[in-house]
């Protein structure tokens, strides 16, 4: 990667190879604190073992790049696609999702060896310009799994009554933020990915949306505010909740965000005293919506959020222009508050995750990446402390079901003006 | 209704009283073919017994009009609100939804007596102008339950392996329709209820939406076309389906619309040979979406549908300007095809059921009518053969979960142009 | 029955015809207070609608007597066996058990007409001596369903929050009983049906069992004693319970017998103040066992119970020699305490329901009557206030799963001596 | 253990200490082929991770011997009892059973260190004669968990579609056995533990039982015979099955014993060709009963089995007099057929697992060992290839629910004579 290159042309290949290498290295650094056993457990159907994330991302490269695009490549192990394919129907049958936690074999080291093998085999492909979009997709895909790996292992360690921790570090105190509002006059806004550079298919086509005047809070709702919501009977007041949300609260005896216990929060560093100034995280859409109702405000639409993120001229910078608290090395992801729209936690919008006008999924198996999930989920914007820095952007659309809350999910209020 | 009216003033009160009376009478006419036992069964949690619909609509009048607005009114039976409240949290605890089928008491005749009692007690209220909006709501509410009553009893009779029928009539043959497209140039469209007259709170506020150019089919998808979809392996081809839809197909071994068996359909008149020219009905959102994908088109948004319904000048007539096949007496609802956008079946849109900009639910218990259901459901437009004529309009938003299909649900294709 | 009989021979046929007629009449008298709707509801998978019991008992006669033994008999309705067969695999497919509550058709009157038709058709069969055993089986079968009909409709009416009652009568006060013990010196006891007269196949073959010395209480445990058990924390003390029982208590939040509410019990006559002197009923095996442990005693084995019932000479009278409170007309079954071993409630034994030595089920479909249920259930002895008088006997083996308690189940303590 | 001992007296202490050491060593040898990840997975609620078995057996010693009987002993880790208590209610709350698979921490090595610590701490207790019964219980307890460890890890590895194996060995061919019958003339038999030496409380009190004449097969049913049962439609013939068994077959689509696939069986050594002469294993009670019915025979009672095992004089040797194929080192347990009644597989009896006359559980937490499981289960006799040699005896009563089959369970036929 660092060798001297006299020609100008190969620059793109080099740049992408460097990002490939950095991404692959970060994934491995994230699992460095984990034992084979830690990396094997699966705590619920939504989550996957850390080991599986390591293998699945590698399966992605081996399948869509090496197998499909590199002449003569032979699969490292012909039986592994069955266990490491996630949901690509076009790639055939696969292990039941909630059986991933039974994979004590292959070992973590065997998967690391596979990773090294695939990385070596990838070398000749970076120079092939026509593959750049697919490689970009693979990098973004692996970054998404870095975040899932972190939230999944957090959920797994949380099951352990002995208070298992992944890193031994004390969370830094959060910075208190003043209330403020980003106002927007309404009118036609440009939405969706429109610049150069990689984006997922679900971020386009770029199109125009008509907005009413509104304001978006300049800061995230905090743990301290959430404690007030609880103290005011938020979880016992049916009128604050969506009907499905109230049913969810009652059936699951929900009375606080996930990972709350007394005055402590569970983190990748074990149990720690809750910081009232830190953004609240690990809430469901139902909780976010109920809080907003209680607060006399509402959640923003995904279009409102994006319009603010793009700013006056409508030209968002390619990547998270507002800085913030995101993942840039293999340390523990810990929300501590920041000034930008990106970082700390994904922010629920009241927009359902649906196709943009004229959206068409890509052909082939990678067409299953996004489009087929467009029912029943809500869009989240921004990025979290577990999102690789550089991964998100103004047009980025994350999505989860309204009851899910094992991600670093939080909220930023909006209001009509 | 047709009588001569010399005086100007009493018109509003009389007109509304007449519609009240007609609505109440139609509800009772619908259950005339049912025995007490027929009216008692509950086939699934989504459905309610016919008897319960009769009672619940009466509870609505007794609670929100008589109890709350008529001095000195005493409840007919103080224990009945517990069993006949549907989902109004503000009205207190109530019987578990899936226990409604245990109500062999009160009898159908006892409920009819209650209805008569309430109808008599309502007399003085029609002249009070300030109550008109609430009475309009009650009439629309009862019309909605007329439709549910019909679809619920159909589902109940369907459970009976002996082929129970409610009416003894042979369905008329459907009229074949030519393919055609309503084209729309895109641009800003006015959406939502904006005229005089009653509308549910979820139909407003009126606002503007920016549309891309599109076309909406002039006709509904038919049983014959659906048979082609099946013959072409539609239910076995994962790539046509949303991910949740595919899981639903597999878990429930779905291979046809509800009420299909060999070359017959179950109807309120028992099993009858399926009519290839009739609109397909009793499909889920997942099926509608998969069919549209298979057909190379897509579902419309609720905004596109409404824009076509409103026509050139954007001024839809208050009620179903396109005629069509809707409920106007107590005969069996049977889809047989029609030329308008309204009637035969509700049409799935790809729009999630969410609040319009600046939407606020009404204060009090009736505020629970619509707003709290705004997650996880999809909007359907139009009206069905089980919808009371005059009930629907261009701004009407029906909504169901994507797996539900016991309503008369169908689809009308859309495409980008 | 009371007519003069000069000839000796025809006596058997006449006697059995009279019992047939009386049994059929009692079944119909039991449902006289029920509406068609009452007779249609099914409150849980274990229970069946009253209407279904009326029909199923008739199906039994039509299938095994008329269809199989009467030349030229044609089924009343060829589709009905599918819905009114209970569990006879040899008789083909049938409606799912928990769909019986969807049978609003045929109506109660239609089933009564079928009953009359079958009763008339049966006339020529009583004189055929070779059919007597099968007719006896049919009578006993219908008596069993009389009891199930009563316990099932009780459970159904109980679901109604309005406190529906089947009879309008006030339960008589129970007679207090003194504690006493029937002692037995142990040794070899004759067990099983050994006299003339009908018995189910599971009551034989008669055989010998070796007993240790023991004593059996002369009376049933009462509601008053059960209240002491509750007051002493019986339902919160794990050490009193079988492991499966404790799991059942916790999962279902059990804290009292079925049909208890404050100081009232639900009966066929509605809610009434609980009588402390009456035998406790509607308890599960788990509860019976926990109570016995708490009381410092134990449950008897089925052999101990039968040995006491047979008395000194080992020759129990054919039918319930001890009198007691059993069903002999169509009044409400109400436990009020009695001196015999039979009546008021079935009494749990600690014996699993298993085959006696050399047991073989009968050939053909009626061989499915008892044998195939010999796993996972416990034997109950005696009879209840809902058991037709004359139905039970010392060798009678009733059986239920350890969690079931919608029957009139109670307990009689035993101890080692 | 190997030190010179001049005195005669300490013999008992030495002998028991040697068995303690051998048992503890065998447990650890069994897990030697497993990685920490292998030892962490839990494949179903019935099974526990290998790691958990290692820890739970150690918890037993630490709790009931060291904590309760050794002055001044302090718990190795005060939080561990919460996670390593199995089901002893008297020992307080504990982790949910199906969360044991989340224990990636403590590591396998940390648990081994705990084992060593406890082993060292136990040293002074062996000489205390009054503790011998409790130590014997602890040894037998750990032997039971050796067997569970083996069957649980087999079930865990079986989930892995990659065919994970624990040992790399080829199963030896089974020895074909001729059919023969052990006949018994009936009469009074002595049942239950009556000699010196350790036995579980559920094996007593010794008592007499009256038997009818019968014969017990001299050999186990084989895979080859089971294949005939399948070929003859055994799994599709309702009349062969208990009612609960037939429901289980249909709901779970059962068509062969567990671990059968085509002509192979899954073993601790991976997938291997099935040996027709080897005893069939991994069947449920329902299957055993259906096979016996199909074969025209029946299952023995536990009393019949024991009477044959005790032989002519009624004096069974303390431990498995018939030799056979049992666990005596840390090799893979593989059924290969043998001549004795013990070994290869546990043999289902038709006896429900119930208390013997005058049975009383021990006082305190160890009283929960057996008694509280006496409902819903069936007794199995003999021993399996995964049972530690010396662990079983004629009076031994193993017990499982009728649907369970992940143990080495098989059958030996009986018949009336």
Automatic annotation (TrEMBL), chains A, B, C, D:
<feature type="domain" description="Sulfatase-modifying factor enzyme-like">
    <location>
        <begin position="185"/>
        <end position="319"/>
    </location>
</feature>
<keyword id="KW-0408">Iron</keyword>
<feature type="domain" description="DinB-like">
    <location>
        <begin position="20"/>
        <end position="128"/>
    </location>
</feature>
<protein>
    <submittedName>
        <fullName>Ergothioneine biosynthesis protein EgtB</fullName>
    </submittedName>
</protein>
<comment type="pathway">
    <text>Amino-acid biosynthesis; ergothioneine biosynthesis.</text>
</comment>
<dbReference type="InterPro" id="IPR042095">
    <property type="entry name" value="SUMF_sf"/>
</dbReference>
<dbReference type="InterPro" id="IPR017806">
    <property type="entry name" value="EgtB"/>
</dbReference>
<dbReference type="InterPro" id="IPR024775">
    <property type="entry name" value="DinB-like"/>
</dbReference>
<keyword id="KW-0560">Oxidoreductase</keyword>
<dbReference type="InterPro" id="IPR051043">
    <property type="entry name" value="Sulfatase_Mod_Factor_Kinase"/>
</dbReference>
<dbReference type="InterPro" id="IPR005532">
    <property type="entry name" value="SUMF_dom"/>
</dbReference>
<dbReference type="GO" id="GO:0052699">
    <property type="term" value="P:ergothioneine biosynthetic process"/>
</dbReference>
<dbReference type="Pfam" id="PF12867">
    <property type="entry name" value="DinB_2"/>
</dbReference>
<dbReference type="InterPro" id="IPR016187">
    <property type="entry name" value="CTDL_fold"/>
</dbReference>
<dbReference type="Pfam" id="PF03781">
    <property type="entry name" value="FGE-sulfatase"/>
</dbReference>
């Amino acid at each position: 990667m660092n060798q001297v290159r006299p020609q100008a042309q190969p620059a793109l290949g080099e740049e992408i190879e460097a990002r490939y290498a950095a991404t692959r290295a970060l994934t491995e650094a994230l699992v460095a604190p984990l034992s084979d056993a830690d990396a094997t457990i699966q705590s619920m159907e939504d989550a996957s073992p850390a080991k599986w994330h390591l293998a699945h991302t590698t399966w992605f490269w081996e399948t869509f790049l090496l197998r499909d695009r590199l002449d003569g490549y032979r699969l490292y192990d012909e039986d592994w696609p069955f266990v490491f394919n996630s949901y690509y129907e076009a790639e055939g049958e696969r292990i039941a999702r909630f059986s991933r936690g039974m994979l004590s074999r292959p070992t973590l080291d065997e998967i690391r060896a596979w990773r090294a093998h695939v990385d070596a085999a990838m070398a000749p492909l970076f120079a092939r310009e026509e593959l750049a979009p697919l490689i970009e997709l693979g990098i973004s895909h692996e970054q998404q799994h870095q975040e899932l790996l972190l939230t999944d292992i957090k959920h797994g360690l949380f099951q352990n009554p002995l208070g298992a921790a992944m890193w031994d570090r004390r969370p830094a105190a959060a910075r208190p933020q003043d209330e403020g509002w980003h106002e927007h006059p309404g009118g036609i806004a440009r939405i969706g990915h429109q610049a150069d550079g990689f984006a997922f298919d679900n971020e386009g086509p770029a199109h125009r949306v008509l907005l009413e005047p509104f304001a978006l809070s300049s800061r995230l709702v905090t743990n301290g505010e959430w404690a007030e919501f609880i103290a005011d009977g938020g979880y016992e007041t049916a009128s604050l909740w969506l009907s499905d949300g109230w049913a969810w609260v009652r059936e699951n005896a929900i009375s606080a965000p996930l990972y709350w216990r007394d005055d402590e929060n569970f983190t990748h560093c074990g149990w720690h005293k809750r910081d009232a100034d830190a953004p609240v995280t690990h809430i469901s859409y139902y909780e976010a919506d109920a809080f907003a109702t209680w607060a006399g405000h509402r959640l923003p639409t995904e279009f409102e959020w994006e319009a603010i993120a793009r700013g006056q001229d409508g030209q968002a910078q390619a990547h998270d222009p507002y800085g913030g608290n995101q993942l840039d090395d293999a340390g523990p992801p810990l929300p501590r508050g920041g000034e930008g729209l990106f970082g700390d936690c994904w922010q629920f919008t009241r927009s359902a995750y649906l196709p943009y006008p004229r959206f068409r999924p890509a052909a082939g198996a990678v067409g299953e990446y996004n489009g087929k999930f467009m029912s029943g989920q809500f869009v989240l914007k921004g990025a979290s402390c577990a999102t690789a820095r550089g991964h998100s952007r103004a047009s980025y659309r994350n999505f989860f079901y309204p009851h899910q809350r094992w991600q670093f999910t939080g909220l930023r209020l909006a209001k009509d003006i």
